[in-house]
Design a protein that fits this description.
- This protein is mainly α.
- A two-stranded parallel ribbon has the order 1-2.
- The two termini are 20 Å apart.
- It is found in: Cell membrane.
- It is a multi-pass membrane protein.
- Keywords: Cell membrane, Membrane, Transmembrane, Transmembrane helix, Transport.
Length: 545
């Protein structure tokens, strides 16, 4: 499967150089999402796509989810360096296309192409870290990437708001990716010294097509179910298509020589539990994160840019716990305790959020979202670490991509179902609030719930403002109860997660593609790192197998 050649020599200096290439690529993807979210109302207004705004998010989400397993499998078969550069290139070119988009349709297309690159950046960065860093030390390297996403949640809205409100225009939300992308590509080209592999087995084309059908039907069905109704004809048709596609996918994968998602992975109890945990937590946490900013914006009367800063405590919670646990995991090799604690903390935060009311102070809300962030920081990277550590080194890419794929599926389902419950309740309560304050609503120019804006509500003053804020709180808080059973199941799963001793060899070392400068005792693991390059002999299982 691979060509015999001198192995790489792993040194601290080389691992840091490679890690810098990964960070550059991930920074671009992380910032893009939060920058665009702030500018979206202006973008769709300028391009005439307000009534189809959801397609912008759907295109990116669908493309990202589609390619995750493909990047993971191809990376295992052919090596990850070229794929990582391709992902950066796709993302950068698509940014130019989005900035120059002449119509809403073309803008959606280019956002989809960005998703093709973004999915690769996410999966390949995690898999490359697993290739060059032992599982015992991996948390120290994955933690900065998690913190990077947290920091982008703060910086992105501010940058996006600045571009949109200034004379530069929203197009600069995409132009800014070009120099960053070129720099990331240059760093990756010169610094990302990784082996290439020669694969002789046939690609699982049928499996890729079947999985694409599964993902497309699922994403579109949940999107239409949330907006058009779960019994709408197209929703039901896509749901039926999803079931058929799943059956076809399983049949195809059972016969494939190199399946894009090896079904035997799910016979591994540790991998199966870690992946189920990712699904459950994705279902719960993204639902909460998706709709909290809307409530905060309406209750505070702030602009979208400023209200985004109200989620800073969540970012702080993520950074504190993700950085605080990395050293402990490296010293002790224990990670299950943080996984259990993470789910329990998220569960506590969600239960606390059911107590939201119209007069809940921003300080209390800040404490709630800090608790939620702390829980996410405890579990986010550890679920991926557990999945990677449970499989042979030859399957690091596909294990990483499959775990992330199911988390994205959970997030898609959670946001759609949670959103339907929230918006249905919200429409009823806003109708009541506006009817009770009809004269004041007409004076403020609020003729229907659809015409509500934070600025208009804030300008209208009380009692209308209080009525609207209480309507949002009354609609949002009880819906959090629907997430509690899901997180209880996740907590039970966390207790059943088998804690396999963390591997003390990097993935490339375990496969015979690299060597360390000197033997590393299990009791005192040092971070590993890379030196000169070339190809590598065939692999052997990781220490965590």
């Amino acid at each position: 499967m691979t060509t015999a050649a001198p192995p790489l020599v792993l040194t601290r200096r080389r691992i840091n150089i490679i890690f810098s290439a990964l960070v550059a690529g991930m920074l671009m993807a992380a910032l893009d999402q939060t920058i665009v979210s702030t500018s979206m109302p202006t973008i769709v207004g300028d391009l005439g796509g307000v009534s189809h705004m959801a397609w912008v998010t759907t295109a990116y989400l669908l493309a990202t989810t589609l390619v995750m397993p493909v990047y993971g499998k191809l990376g295992d078969l052919f090596g990850r360096r070229t794929l990582f550069l391709v992902a950066i290139g796709l993302f950068t070119v698509a940014s130019v296309g989005a900035a120059l988009a002449p119509s809403f349709g073309w803008f959606v297309v280019w956002r989809g192409v960005q998703g093709l690159g973004g999915g690769g950046l996410m999966i390949l960065s995690q898999a490359i870290i697993a290739d060059i860093v032992p599982a015992r030390e991996r948390a120290r390297y994955m933690a900065p990437i998690g913190a990077l996403f947290g920091l982008s949640a703060v910086a992105g809205p501010l940058i996006g708001g600045f571009f949109t409100d200034s004379s530069l225009g929203w197009e600069w939300c995409f132009w800014v990716n070009v120099p960053v992308g070129l720099a990331a590509f240059a760093i990756g080209w010169f610094a990302l010294t990784l082996p290439k592999r020669r694969n002789t087995t046939p690609l699982d084309i049928a499996g890729i097509i079947a999985l694409s059908a599964v993902t497309t039907c699922l994403v579109l069905a949940t999107d239409l179910g949330g907006s058009e109704g779960w019994t709408a004809p197209w929703t039901l048709a896509l749901g039926a298509g999803f079931v058929v596609a799943v059956v076809v996918f399983v049949l195809v994968e059972r016969r494939a020589v190199e399946p894009v998602v090896p079904l035997q992975l799910f016979t591994n109890p540790t991998f199966a539990v870690a992946t189920a945990l990712g699904l459950a937590v994705g279902l719960g946490m993204f639902s909460a994160i998706a709709f909290l900013p809307t409530y905060l914006q309406m209750s505070s009367g702030q602009s979208a840019t400023v209200s985004g800063l109200l989620l800073v405590p969540m970012t702080a919670g993520i950074i504190v716990t993700i950085q605080g646990t990395a050293g402990f995991i490296a010293r002790t090799g224990r990670y299950k305790v943080f996984t259990v604690a993470g789910v329990a903390t998220i569960l506590a935060a969600i239960v606390w959020m059911t107590q939201l009311t119209g007069d809940t102070s921003l300080w209390t809300i800040g404490a709630m979202v800090f608790t939620l962030g702390a829980g996410l920081g405890l579990i986010m990277q550890n679920v991926v670490l557990a999945a990677q550590n449970a499989v042979p080194a030859t399957q690091l890419g596909v294990a990483t991509s499959t775990n992330n794929y199911f988390r994205e599926v959970g997030a898609t389902l959670g946001v759609a179902v949670f959103g339907t419950l929230f918006t249905t309740r919200l429409a009823e309560r806003l109708g009541t609030a506006l009817s009770a304050n009809a004269e004041q609503a007409v004076t403020a120019g609020i003729l229907s719930p659809d015409s509500l804006t934070p600025a208009a509500v804030d300008a209208a003053g009380d009692p209308l403002r209080s009525a609207v804020v209480f309507a949002y709180a009354d609609a949002l808080a009880p819906v959090f109860w629907y997430l509690v059973p899901i997180l209880v199941v996740a907590l039970v799963l966390a207790f059943f997660l088998r804690e396999i001793p963390l591997a003390t060899e990097a993935g490339m070392v375990a496969r015979g593609e690299a060597v360390t400068e000197e033997p590393t005792p299990a009791a005192e693991v040092q971070p590993v790192v890379v030196v000169e390059r070339d190809g590598m002999p065939a692999g052997r299982p990781s220490a965590g197998e």
